[in-house]
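worker-03 picked up job from queue 'complexes'. Input manifest follows; two sequence lines, order preserved.
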Amino acid sequence: MEFPILSLMLAVPLVGAIACLFLNAGSARMVALFATLFNLALGVMLWVNYDVGGTQWQFVERAEVFAGFSYALGIDGIALMLIMLSVFLMPICILASWDSITKRVGEYMSAFLLMEVLMLGVFAAQDMFLFYIFFEAGLIPMYLIIGVWGGDKRIYASYKFFLYTLLGSVLMLIAMLWMVNEAGTTDIPTLMQYDFAPGAQTWLWLAFFASFAVKMPMWPVHTWLPDAHVQAPTAGSVILAGVLLKLGGYGFIRFSLPMFPEASAQFAWLVFGLSMVAVIYTSLVALVQEDMKKLIAYSSVAHMAIVTVGLFAFNVQGLEGAMVVMLSHGLVSAALFLCVGVIYDRLHTREIHRYGGLAINMPKYALFFLLFTMASIGLPGTSGFVGEFLSLAGIYEVSTTVTLVCTTGIILGAAYMLYLYRRVVFGTQVNDDAARMTDLNAREWFMLAPIAAAVLWMGVYPESFLAPMRADIAALDARLARAASAGDAHLKLGEPKAQEANYIAPEHSEEGAH
Amino acid sequence: MNSILIIVFFPLLAALIAGLTNKAAPSVFAKAVTTAALFISCALSWPIFLGFVAGDLTATVVPVLQWVRSGDLAFDWALRVDTLTAVMLVVITTVSALVHLYSWGYMDEDPDQPRFFAYLSLFTFAMLMLVTADNLVQMFFGWEGVGLASYLLIGFWFRKPSANAAAIKAFVVNRVGDLGFMLGIFGTFLVFGTVSIPEILAAAPAMSGATIGFLGLRMHTMDVLCILLFIGAMGKSAQLGLHTWLPDAMEGPTPVSALIHAATMVTAGVFMVCRLSPMFETAPIALGVVTFIGAATCIFAATVGTTQWDIKRVIAYSTCSQLGYMFFAAGVGAYGAAMFHLFTHAFFKALLFLGAGSVIHAMHHEQDMRYYGGLRKQIPFTFWAMMAGTLAITGVGIYWLHAGFAGFHSKDAILEAAFGRGTEMGNFAFWMGAFAALLTSFYSWRLMFLTFWGKPRWIESEHIQHSVHKTPEEAGADTTGGYHPHESPLTMLVPLGVLSLGAIFAGWFFSHAFLDDAGFWQGSIFYNEALMHQIHAVPLWVKLTATVVMLLGLITAWWAYIKDTSIPAKAAEQLGPVYRLFYNKWYFDELYNVIFVKPAFWLGRQFWKLGDVGIIDRFGPNGVAWVVEKGSVGARRFQSGYLNSYALVMLLGLVAAITWVLF
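worker-03 finished. Artifact:
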């Protein structure tokens, strides 16, 4: 048996989480930072040792527990990328909380490390019930982070978050029980190959959809997100936007699509419809927000709609695009929340109109914020473009109408993000206290610079991120092929025209002169 | 031809160095680094261009880096150099290098110079990536990159609300065009299975009879694709409907207007249509659209240009109008003429903008021509440079000698091509173009006369009043207010001088290569041999039309702005509604505000307050909470804690159970 690196990656933050409970504030911070950095190093080793083009499931660990339930871990390229995203963001979260969290620091760090354990567990789990446990337990630390260290209306926000996400989970659990009963296994790779009867697929798909749509979040079950973001502390928002929002998409790509291909095709219209509404609706809502975090939260919903259309395009571009949008959004929205956090720490308000003219006193900050704004808009050369482009290119093969509607997101996205940027960073210094704010300190620089580098890397050379996922996406695409729709383009070849449009017969040239 | 790597990436490197050191180093460092990089790029570009003119070079592609592989969709970073690219290379690097130099003088007092020069170089890099693209996606990268640089430079003076508004407007309106461009790329990939430009162009003729579904309708494949791509071109090149951002973009510093909003970026759309010309030639309807939009823009922008007072806005509308010429030239199949006009226009329009900048510099930032006058003697070098630009744009030349200023060669070729094409759309474009040429001459001379002739009207300007600390009343009869305009420094005059040479000679010198030499283009554009013959065969009156309308415009402007200066006011009064229509830019901004901007914000508020809060939350989570709360109130009644009520319930339950079991 090879070295159980995945278990180690779960154990390190778990040990850290327990240790933090008993430590004072200063040591808890150090322990948390060390644990997350150590996990990042393990993640890098994981990536380096991942054999691109090798077997689908790597680093597999399995221990039977009881009654078919097993502690089974293992990753494919898709999971690898999401694990990398998680371990990359965690140390940044700890840094972001360094000064801003002053009460119950030990418990706070403990909650974050526990969060990391559970997130990694979700992506690494190969047993369906193990997945379920990680998937649902992730609610608890997040609930605490919002409810204990959040803003003024944290209780309302945390309950709303909990209510919404729990609602879907219950249905999903019932569906899982039925599936295990039917297929006789809890092993996810086996289930991904199992063909459920189309009639059963319909109900199973809907049950899973209830959970994933909320997690995504899709319109109209998105209203928990703005409240949760607004009330959560900065690092909470980072992890929420960076990783937790990816659980829905991961669920679709791991469960709904491979396990219920026929039902997925059958309900594609529903996903497209909700996504189209989401792009227009939430983008317009983002346009009128006065609260920075709310604005970015609404923009997340619009971006996630691009993920869902990409996933249900049933082709390689759509699927890979959706994955890249998820990774990119994980980086970019996390960075945008960090940017909000940087100035929130100084002025303790998220109201846009309380700022202005920050380019004058915070030029470094303005540059980072600009980069992430542009990445959010999907400027080519940043990560945002690659995903959006592939996703929309994928969906174009299915429906031009959906593509047209979803592509309007690039216009609306530019409008609300630039409007935000203008009000916060440009203009004159209307508020004295905002004008006195200092530029990024070293800690903040170290939070933002790695993300900036990753965003550009993914934008210029996305091959690093696409290569590990290629075989898995291809396998999924092959499985979906039987249910894929023909698309609405229906290219029909015709007799080519003999001449160019502006063809002028040479012999007429004299005659044309009159 | 690996020098292309240096040409393209030096400006990027310079931009990074200048931008990241920013204020850590003296601003002269950033200025020197960026300017040097651009002059190196420029020096390396000319040999490539002249190599193509001489026929020594052939098209090459220099690979740089793999970009994206996704299923059968693959595209890389690569630099393509062919004749069409070479033309753009010299235009971009020459104007950019000169603008960098010019900015040493023009931006001398600005505290943020490193940032300015970094943006300029960044823009140049993006523009070079655009024109060297070997696939549509890299073209889109450059397309968006120049959009970013344009946004940053329009909003360079970010303390000004008007500059910020203009910057956002430019970006967002361009994104509307980009929507079309992106859909066009997706459709092209769907149809051809590739985004590589050479492969698409090779496969396009075979698709000319194909049909495709789009938004539920069945259409000609190539027409759909080309129109979608052209929508992108309309945004970038400020064609009618998507033009509203360009005049506002004049909020940026004047060197920016010269580089981005005259010579290079706004011509990207024309470049795109020419680059894809074999593809457009398979799409007759799309070409009709191109011709029509081009001709309509050409006349529309010219009408507005005749009434504006801001010197930069006049030139901006002029640019818009000249781009219209280029598009309808492409539309009728005269891609060589379109590129030729792009080439000459870059020189004389950059010259006019930089000249205007020099005037503005001399007049203490005043941009309103009503407060100019009599500047000929004060700033003679600027005057003569502007004169060269005006002679070029109005197309002064003598047909029988076949010699004239730059615009004479290129604009006349376009009008002749439109006429020579012989279709109704071609004739429409010809007449629109001819009338626009009349207006071009009129507004260009109007600009010259208002600025350089007549009596000084300087003291009316607030900027001048601030400078001389006098009000018009205090100044009395001395309408100069005692202000002394100074000629600009040498760093600004040298670019004016060089561009003047371009405005005077570029047309005459390169006319043969661009228009009559299929060998020059080497297949990098669709070269229509028969149409080029038609140009030479059009009747004499067609050939003289441009010259005649140029003279008419000159005489009218002279009459109204020198001979009898009361005419303009009278004409404005007489033609009230028409004048107001032109003066208010045909009310496009007002219209868009009412049908797009306001509804977007209104809808956003409705979706938020009514949709999210009023419906989803109310009946969703809050509704569930309400049900649970009310339900628990009900449930609480059963848990009163009174023993007797529990006993009663227990008794009832027992009775019910027994009843159930027994019966």
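worker-03 released lock.
Chain B has a mean pLDDT of 91.
Chain B touches chain A through 93 residues (CB under 8 Å).
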